[in-house]
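Preliminary data (for renewal application), guanosine-5'-triphosphate complex.
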Amino acid sequence: MSAEAASSSWSDRILGGFRKTSERLAENLGGIVGSSRLSDAQLDDIEDALILSDLGPRAAARIRERLKGARFENGVDEQGLKEAVAEEIAAILRPVAKPLEIVAFPRPQVILVIGVNGSGKTTTIAKLAHLFQEQDYGVMLAAGDTFRAAAIGQLKVWADRLGVPIVTGPEGGDPASIVFDAVKAATDTGIDTLIVDTAGRLQNKRELMDELAKVRRVLGRLNPEAPHDVVLVLDATNGQNALQQIEIFKEVAGVTGLIMTKLDGTARGGVLVAAAEQYGLPIHAIGVGEKIDDLRPFDPDLVAKVIAGVFR
Ligand SMILES: Nc1nc2c(ncn2[C@@H]2O[C@H](COP(=O)(O)OP(=O)(O)OP(=O)(O)O)[C@@H](O)[C@H]2O)c(=O)[nH]1
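Predicted structure:
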């Protein structure tokens, strides 16, 4: 594929993930025209449009406040308004754009990956492993979701495909003991990063909490700094449910950063802005497909333009 074709398919895909958000926003911003300042009624309409587009009440209120003071030298028109909205969305997103970096010393850097089943957790672990391999880091995986044999098997398939070592245990085995073995193996063999899959059953919050707490305790015993990262994987097609999941996983596992997947489909990506405004957690990357190199850096300016419909 030519570089041009590759880049156009990439922007098409990300446009897909934010389409529901941006179409709804465009529908509601379209009619707003006027003199050099926005009226209160227009500001109300913009705020409503932002909320309807999944950006959440807090981000919407913040953008309204900022636009209230804005001057539009040539009068308000659709394009100017979209550009102003894009700039305000970018201002919310820029502080949270933060790639996951391997910096822990001593090694390994332990990255716990959490999220509900089906969110794209396993695929994201494989994509992260690939990304770190490309940066010449030694990677190891740990199959800490022992609830389903399929979950262990799926991770193993990825490990084999990528040629990275993996520590697994039997179905129903103790995740903490797998993680213990994995940290020891990673330390002994000089691995740079250990990426740990974890269970994602929210049906029994108490059990999940106990399981993740035990994994954390065991990790802490081996290395007081571990886990260095606790990355929550969110499925963008879940819209506002993503916010509830952040809330729950913050409580059960202490989240340090987010990766949003499935931003290539019919997602409601606007929820990323709501999450950024409400929680301020780093957004490490976004998933835009099922293939191994479909994990992309989170580009706040591009995402803001796509949401506001500046790119069309
Ligand atoms: N379109 C698209 N599909 C994705 C993306 N990430 C993951 N998927 C797909 O989503 C489905 C679920 O992904 P998994 O990685 O198995 O999810 P999981 O959270 O580990 O789920 P369990 O294996 O059930 O615990 C799979 O079919 C993946 O191929 C993405 O960024 N875009």
